[in-house]
Design a protein that fits this description.
- The protein has 154 residues and is of the alpha+beta class.
- The protein is built from seven helices and eight strands.
- The protein has one domain: CBS-domain, CATH 3.10.580.
- The strands form three sheets. A three-stranded antiparallel beta sheet has the order 1-8-7. It has a three-stranded antiparallel beta sheet with strand order 2-3-6.
- Helix 3 (52-60) crosses helix 4 (80-91).
- The chain is globular.
């Protein structure tokens, strides 16, 4: 029998909304000792994910893009739009301003092996689990997968 995401996911995960203050989101992450939260709209549909990585901008600030001057023209060596996005994250006050939009998700019936492979390939730490309507019904993390592996050795 193939193990699915539903077999190991955390059901009914804690979620926040885009209007949630960063202060509140940070408090939840710290108190619950978790590294990320699904962000849902008022109807429960996933709109993003907020993670420790998203919050690091608050402390680290933003480095302006490298550029060179050539004949009184500024030539950016990096995309200035990325700088604007990063700056917005660093100055944001709500979850919606700093969250990662359009996160990678998974369905509950997906084989766990495929979910683990996806997480590894994309270097992501968590996958929100969505039902057919796009509502968050769970979350599967790297920790969930490792705990499952440890319990089923042999």
């Amino acid at each position: 029998m193939t193990t699915t995401v539903a077999d190991v996911m955390t059901r009914d995960p804690i979620v926040v909304q885009p209007e949630t203050s960063l202060k509140d989101a940070i408090q939840i992450l710290a108190e619950k000792r978790i590294s990320g939260l699904p962000v849902v709209d008022t109807s429960g549909k996933l709109v993003g994910v907020i993670s420790e990585t998203d919050l690091m901008w608050q402390e680290t600030g933003v480095t302006p893009p490298a550029y060179i001057m050539l004949l009184d023209s500024v030539i950016y060596l990096e995309n200035p739009n990325k700088y604007e996005r990063d700056l917005h994250k660093a100055l944001g006050q709500t979850v919606g301003e700093v969250m990662t939009k359009e996160p990678i998700t998974v369905k509950p019936d997906k084989p766990l092996r495929e979910a683990a492979q996806l997480m590894h390939e994309r270097s992501i730490h968590r996958l929100p689990v969505l039902d057919a309507s796009g509502n968050v019904i769970g979350i599967v993390t790297r920790g969930d997968i490792v705990r499952f592996m440890a319990a089923h050795q042999g």
